[in-house]
Each structure stands twice: as structure tokens, then as C-alpha cells.
Specification:
With 659 residues, the protein is an alpha/beta fold. Helices cover 51% and strands 9% of the residues. The longest helix has 28 residues. The chain binds adenosine-5'-diphosphate and zinc ion.
């Protein structure tokens, strides 16, 4: 329990005690003993009871005292003292004064005793339904009267204020512990404004830099929204869902806003995590509200940030509370229903953003839903330089500020990081009382920001960057000189998504139906080229190749077991079936351990040979490897043209393939 929670426990305890205390102050009378009804009747029967007061839920009674038998004696003792001594104290002698005090003291004692006796004579009884009571009382000469006792305030207090007070306190305590604060009381209310269209949306494409490709792709959405008739005239359907995919801070929200700004339409903005509420039904209801509102304002853009918060694929999230899971599923289903409700003529474009498209439910990505994906990747050097220029537009820069240099030294940074540096630099400059923002301010701001990012593992340090550059160059070079493999389109050492430190893009990657043995071997060799380059240059290998190795191993295994390309067991399908058709169990006996051994040996041999070939190629062309890596370090991205420039013309596929 944290400090705050402990404080509130103590606090509520005090309130509770205070209530108990007040209760005893106001509502408990002198302690009068309660007697059973039977005893009450007996006493009445014996004539011991003097008078009673009947109320709705209690009988107050008084027994006869010593004075009540027969006629009242003439004057009480107290009276006699009073009358016997009428002098005022100050006219008396000392002795007389003392006598007076003693008398007074006795008097007080007697009074107290009398009062005590009176209380002892009193009693209470819980009444029974007794029709004969009045008669009995009359027979025994008991004085009785009824009284209507108003318990209104008392009842109000005990039956309403205290229970509700306690409930409220407990509720508040729980809410506070859950970190919601008492404001969780006005649930739904506080969110009402979240997705109000921003009438002052002045963001345009000019405010987004470094993601030109994404801008280009969203351009189409803008024209759809601007002139829907033009497209509908020929019966084309407008896109409903556009999914922006990219790491946080690359400007996805900004881009969606810019699309709305360019098209001059309202922009509804809501985060996926806002939908997921702890109360059942709220998330789905919110989705309904949002889309109802959007339809009224069409044409417009609805932007849902963190789409994965709702759109995570259904089906088993271990460790997730069942309630929360069901609720998210409801919300997701409602979202799907709403997406399907757009027939392409409602002029509402839904843009979603996520940095984890792989966890999204497949249903969300189907045609008619978020079927268009736009990559908003980390910017390259030129992109970063453009973002630096954009964000320092409004700053008063000194002449020595070199924004291009800043852009060059910030690989891996996203737009939000750069905006952060620019702002931090301006703050530093003001604190240092510089007239203008100077380069030192930028440098110090950069160091401040990069410290945080390196800790989070989001940017590479220079040594890592070198390794990645050689690794990727190795892939590219081996691929380039292996006929039959797909041409290399792009190499990059800008960290991308999760896991991949750099990448070498070969296209086409998927749409191949037939591949020869040589092609598959070439592919393995290219995959191993990354690690081979590390080996050649640094004489040691890194963990960066795990993904390559996995792919290469898989290809090698498939060659031997699926495609029958084994040398020692040629033309055999050695597929191990996991589960037979219709769950009839394995249809094929497990491979014998002998066959398994042969496959393993041959696989090892195949990988070893490919690795050696890659290494030999790299040693032979070491100069070109160096040239590629250094240009990659400088530019971060290379395309097919750069490759041709450095490596010369690529050998054509018809040329005799290497073994
Ligand atoms: P995301 O939605 O991808 O997490 P945001 O759009 O919220 O990122 O970006 C946060 C801020 O970072 C923006 O408001 C903007 O100031 C800055 N920013 C991010 N990317 C860019 C970019 N490409 N161009 C200009 N500014 C950017
Ligand atoms: Zn690799």
C-alpha cells in the first residue's frame, strides 16, 4: 500500500470514529434497565408500577418510590433544610459557615441519591401486542399516557446518512486506490468532448516533413474528401479505412490532421485506449456515439489512435481479466459493425494508427475496413533535416546553427524527438540568456534527448551502427552477385519497427511459385551474407543475425524435407504431418531417427557451404564491401542506383549460376 492509500485509510478511520462518538453523545440517554414484558406484567400485578408512557416502540415505566405510598409526607428533608436556614452565608460566624457547608454538602448527596433511586426505579419494556394492557393498568391504578415519539432525525441519521456515508467513503477509497480519483463518478461525461471536431484545425501537409511517401499516399484521401462526386460519378467506392502504421512519434496523428486540414473537413480524434473502459457497455456505446456524430458531420475524418488497444486479435489473452477482455471484444465488434455500415457513400474516412499492426485482429484488416495501409516510418537523414528546419522555423537562430549537421547525427530519431530537441534548444538558450538560439544549445539539447532514447534502446550507438552497416552491405553484396536472386531495391540502417536494426529489401519477395534449387541456395547464401560480412570485417559475429539464420535454416530444411532436393535422400517427401485431415491423427509415421540424422547432417552441410561461399565472395570483393558500408554509414539508405554505381553492372540471371 502506498503512502497516499495509507493516509486515506487513517483518514476514513477517523471519520468513522467521529461518527460513533457523535452518535453516543446525542442519542444515548441515561442507562435505564430494560425488563422483559412478563416481568413488567408481574410488577403491574403487584401494584409496584406507578406510571408508564407508551410510545410506538417502547414503554417507559416508573416503579413506585418510598414517597408514593399513602399521602405525601409534609415537606421533604431538603425542604426542611431550606426553611430552617434562611440566613445568607456572609452574616454567619465561621462555625456557622462550616455548618452551612456541611448541610449543603449533605443536601447535594441526598439529592444525588434520590436521583439515582429515581433512575433505578425507571425501566423500559419492549411492548407486545396486548389488547388487555389498558384494562390491566386501570385495575392496578397505573397512571398511563401515550406519546408519539418522532424519530425522524434519528432515523434519517442512522438509516440513511450513516450507511450511505460509509458506502460513499468506501467507494471513494476504492476509486482512489485504482488511481481514478473520485472523478470516475462522472464517467462518460468527461469524455463527451474528446471527439468533438476541432474547428480550428489549421494543420496542413506543409506542417509535416520527412514522410513524403506517406503524404503522397494520403493525397488520394484528400481528393476523395474534397470532391466525392467526382469519384462516385463512375461508381467508385471511397476508401473507408486507412491504417497508418509506424513507430510512435513519427507523425501519424499529425498526418491525419493534415489530411483533414487539406480537405477542409472536421477531424474527430480519439484514442483507442479511451474506448476501453472498465464499465461494461461503455466502450461499445462510445463507438456508436462517435460514428453517429461523424455521420452527421460528413464529410469528415475520424482518427482512432492506438487502434491496437481495441483491435487486438480476439481469442485468448492469458493473464487478462475476463471482464476487461469481454469488454474490449464488445467494443471491437461494435467498431466492425460501424465500419461495415459505411457503404462508401457516407464520406466518412476512418484513419487508424498503430505501431503494432501484427497484433490487430484480422477482421479489422479485411476489404472494406482498414484495407489500406500506409507506412509512416522513421525519417532518413534528409527527412530529419527537413523536420529540423520545420520545427526551428519559428526560432530565432544564430548563424552558426547547422541544422543539416543535426539531421545527420540523429539517426533513429522520429519527428517527435526532433521537435523535442528544437524546443529544448530554445529553452536552454533562454536560460543561458543567449540573444539567439546557438549551435551549442542544439548540441546540448541533443545530448539530453539521446541519453533518454539510448536507455530505451531506440537509437544505435556509433559502434552498433558500424556493425549494422557492414551486415546489411554483406547481404546486398552477396545478393547482388548471386544470379537468380531478386534484385536489391533498398538497403537501410535506420532502425525500423521492432527487432530489425537495418534491412535489405529485395523485391519481389512473395509472388514466386517455382524456384530452382540454385535459387533457393542463392537465397540462403544472401541471408547468411550479413553474418559473413561481420565475420570478415570484425572477425566476430553478433546477435543481429538471428532472424536471417532462422529464415535460412527454414529454407534449407524445406529443401530437404518438402521439395526432395536432398542429395542423400533425393526425391522423397519427408514432411512430418502434425495433425491429419479432420483430426484423424498423424497420417504418417514419424520419421525414423536415422532419416532425421541424415537430414540434420545434410542441412548443416548445406548451411556451412553457403556460408563459406558468402564469406569467400566478400573476401574477394572486400573493397566494394568497404565502399558500400561507408556510403551506407553516411547516407543511411542506399537504393538500386547506388549499388550499381559501386558494384558495377549486375551479372544477368542467364549467366551460369554458381554451384
Ligand atoms: P504519432 O501519432 O505518430 O505518435 P504525433 O503525430 O503525435 O506522432 O507526433 C507528435 C509531434 O511530433 C507532432 O505534433 C509534431 O510536432 C512532431 N512530429 C512528429 N512527426 C513529425 C513530422 N514528420 N513532421 C513534423 N513534425 C513531426
Ligand atoms: Zn541480416
Amino acid at each position: 500500500m502506498n503512502q497516499r492509500a495509507r493516509f486515506s485509510v487513517v483518514y476514513y478511520l477517523w471519520v468513522f470514529l467521529l461518527i460513533l462518538f457523535l452518535e453516543s453523545m446525542f442519542f444515548s440517554g441515561p442507562s435505564v434497565k430494560e425488563i422483559p414484558y412478563s416481568e413488567f406484567l408481574t410488577r403491574v400485578g403487584k401494584g409496584e408500577v406507578k406510571a408508564i408512557v407508551l410510545t410506538q416502540d417502547e414503554i417507559y415505566g416508573e416503579m413506585k418510590g418510598p414517597d408514593d405510598d399513602g399521602e405525601k409526607k409534609a415537606g421533604s428533608k431538603a425542604d426542611s433544610i431550606e426553611t430552617s436556614d434562611t440566613r445568607t452565608p456572609w452574616t454567619l460566624s465561621w462555625a456557622a459557615l462550616e455548618g452551612w457547608f456541611v448541610a449543603k454538602k449533605n443536601e447535594a448527596k441526598e439529592l444525588q441519591a434520590e436521583r439515582k433511586a429515581a433512575i433505578e426505579r425507571q425501566f423500559t419494556v419492549i411492548p407486545l401486542q396486548d389488547d388487555d394492557l389498558v384494562e390491566t393498568l386501570q385495575t392496578h391504578g397505573v397512571e398511563f399516557r401515550a406519546k408519539i415519539e418522532s424519530h425522524f432525525f434519528r432515523n434519517l441519521f442512522f438509516d440513511w446518512i450513516i450507511p450511505f456515508g460509509i458506502l460513499f467513503l468506501v467507494w471513494g477509497f476504492i476509486m482512489r486506490r485504482m488511481g481514478q480519483g473520485p472523478s470516475a463518478l462522472n464517467i462518460g461525461k468527461s469524455k463527451a468532448k474528446v471527439y468533438e471536431a476541432d474547428p480550428e484545425n489549421k494543420v496542413h501537409f506543409a506542417d509535416v516533413a520527412g514522410v513524403d511517401e506517406a503524404i503522397e499516399e494520403t493525397q488520394e484521401v484528400v481528393s476523395f474528401l474534397k470532391e466525392p462526386q467526382k469519384f462516385q460519378r463512375l461508381g467508385a467506392k471511397l476508401p473507408t479505412g486507412v491504417l497508418l502504421v509506424g513507430p510512435p512519434g513519427t507523425g501519424k496523428t499529425l498526418l491525419a490532421k493534415a489530411v483533414a486540414g487539406e480537405a477542409g473537413v472536421p477531424f474527430f480524434n480519439l484514442s483507442g485506449s479511451d474506448f476501453v473502459e472498465m464499465f461494461v457497455g461503455v466502450g461499445a456505446a462510445r463507438v456508436r456515439d462517435l460514428f453517429a456524430e461523424a455521420r452527421k458531420k460528413a464529410p469528415c475524418i475520424v482518427f482512432i489512435d492506438e487502434l491496437d488497444a481495441i483491435g487486438r486479435s480476439r481469442g485468448g489473452q492469458p493473464g487478462m481479466a475476463q471482464g476487461g477482455f469481454d469488454e474490449r471484444e464488445n467494443t471491437l465488434n461494435q467498431l466492425l459493425v460501424e465500419l461495415d455500415g459505411f457503404d462508401g457513400r457516407s464520406n466518412v474516412v476512418i484513419m487508424g494508427a498503430t505501431n503494432r499492426p501484427e497484433v490487430l485482429d484480422k477482421a479489422l484488416l479485411r476489404p472494406g475496413r482498414f484495407d489500406r495501409q500506409i507506412l509512416v516510418d522513421r525519417p532518413d537523414r534528409e527527412g530529419r533535416q527537413a523536420i529540423f528546419r520545420l520545427h526551428s522555423r519559428k526560432l530565432d537562430l544564430d548563424d552558426d546553427v547547422d541544422l543539416d549537421k543535426m539531421g545527420a547525427q540523429t539517426p533513429g530519431f522520429v519527428g517527435a524527438d526532433i521537435a523535442n530537441i528544437c524546443n529544448e534548444a530554445a529553452l536552454l538558450a533562454s536560460r543561458r540568456e543567449h540573444d539567439k538560439v546557438q549551435m551549442v544549445d542544439f548540441q546540448d539539447a541533443f545530448e539530453r534527448v539521446i541519453g533518454g532514447l539510448e536507455r530505451k534502446g531506440r537509437v544505435l550507438n556509433p559502434a552498433e551502427k558500424r556493425i549494422v552497416a557492414y551486415h546489411e552491405s554483406g547481404h546486398a553484396l552477396v545478393g547482388y552477385f548471386t544470379p537468380g536472386t531478386d534484385p536489391v531495391e533498398k538497403i537501410s540502417i535506420v532502425p525500423r519497427g521492432r527487432g530489425a536494426l537495418g534491412y535489405t529489401l529485395q523485391s519481389p519477395t512473395e509472388d514466386r511459385y517455382l524456384m530452382s534449387r540454385a535459387e533457393l541456395l542463392g537465397r540462403i547464401r544472401t541471408l547468411l551474407g550479413g553474418r559473413a560480412a561481420e565475420q570478415v570485417v570484425f572477425d566476430q559475429v553478433s546477435t543481429g543475425a538471428s532472424d536471417d539464420l532462422e529464415k535460412a535454416t527454414k529454407i534449407a530444411r524445406s529443401m530437404l524435407t518438402v521439395y526432395g532436393m536432398s542429395e542423400r535422400l533425393p526425391n522423397l517427401s519427408l514432411v512430418e504431418q502434425e495433425e491429419g485431415f479432420l483430426g484423424l491423427g498423424p497420417q504418417q509415421a514419424a520419421r525414423s531417427s536415422e532419416v532425421e540424422k541424415v537430414i540434420a547432417e545434410e542441412q548443416l552441410e548445406l548451411i556451412r557451404r553457403s556460408y563459406e561461399e558468402a564469406q569467400a565472395l566478400l573476401v574477394e570483393r572486400r573493397d566494394q564491401l568497404e565502399a558500400l558500408a561507408s556510403r551506407l554509414l553516411d547516407r543511411e539508405k542506399l537504393d538500386a542506383k547506388d549499388l550499381e554505381e559501386i558494384l558495377g553492372p549486375r551479372p544477368r540471371p542467364e549467366d551460369p549460376a554458381q554451384p
